[in-house]
Amino acid sequence: MCSIDCCSNPRGKxxxxxxPSNASNRPIIPTPNGELYPYEVIQEIADFIVKGSNMRPxxxxxxxxxxxxxxxxxQDAKVFxxxxxxxxxxSTVEGHAGKLVVGNLEGAVVMAMQGRFHFYEGxxxxxxxxxxxxxxxxxxxxxxxxNAAGGINPKYSVGDIMLMHDHVNMLGFAGNSPLQGxxxxxxxxxxPALVNSYNKELINKxxxxxxxxxxxxxxxxxxYSCLGGPTYETIAELKALRMMGVDAxxxxxxxxxxxxxxxxxxxxxxxxITNKCATEYSDKKDDEANHDEVMAxxxxxxxxxxxxxxxxxxxxxxxx
Length: 320
Ligand SMILES: O=P(O)(O)O[C@@H]1C[C@H](O)[C@@H](CO)O1
Ligand SMILES: Nc1nc2[nH]cnc2c(=O)[nH]1
Description:
Radius of gyration: 21 Å
Bound molecules: the ligand O=P(O)(O)O[C@@H]1C[C@H](O)[C@@H](CO)O1, guanine
Protein name: Purine nucleoside phosphorylase
Number of domains: 1
Keywords: Glycosyltransferase, Transferase
Helix content: 25-40%
Largest sheet: 5 strands, mixed, barrel
Shape: globular
Pathway: Purine metabolism; purine nucleoside salvage
Strand order of the largest sheet: 5-8-7-6-9
CATH topology: Rossmann fold
EC number: 2.4.2.1
CATH superfamily: Nucleoside phosphorylase domain
Domain Nucleoside phosphorylase: 58-314
Number of strands: 9
Number of helices: 10
Distance between the termini: 42 Å
């Protein structure tokens, strides 16, 4: 909550003297990201989930748009609706059910978010990625983040899976970070490094699994970039992203990964390519991305995505 004392510029006409003891005369100054969810609040949410499920998850999964079925394969599941979790935001986007599912998958206790929070929904980045800290305090060691994304790399086709090995943080370029504001060292350091954010061992295992599944031709390793949305990109923006080495573009994941690395979680992330991004001007209507298409492609490819996640978790369990 914004403290009443933080408001320094009285509202009103230029030069007009307003009574500062009247709260309505004071502007609203947003609370810094780092103060939105103090450690104690995150701990309370984590306790609610651990006690409510009687399970301590090791792997956290964030389901991308239309990929909620990743949570449907969890067994002996305890399901929490976001509305019923104290201090939890609600999902407002189609394809994001708004449920937290805790249970067993391939011998591991996992917790999966069927619905993530996006910056364009009006949530500050710290709120979008707050559940990652909840996962950490629940005991999660591995974050699996998935997303639907537009393919900019001309070699990518709709339905392909891109394993993320790096990102370009466009919101960060604009000075926005989920770690902005006071740092709580109980989560992690003030200045976390982000090279090696995406766990190489897990990427290699996933590539091997891709071969076993016979989908290696539809699997890539690439760079993701998150923009604020909710608009899809212009051709000029897509050209610029391509020049920067971006292979796929979306509206999520990067701030979750930053938050996970800050608290030293191992990260595995992939993009399902739901549409091909045009990087040349044309009059074709086909070039326009739309959410229905994103959802339809995700539905078509959910089986392969579930299989990849399940097999990778099986391998993590086997080697632990
Ligand atoms: O939650 P993700 O990143 O998978 O969702 C993408 C980005 C937008 O929310 C939506 C656009 O179609 O899909
Ligand atoms: N920003 C962005 N997000 C997406 N999510 C799915 N497709 C796209 C896309 O083309 N651009």
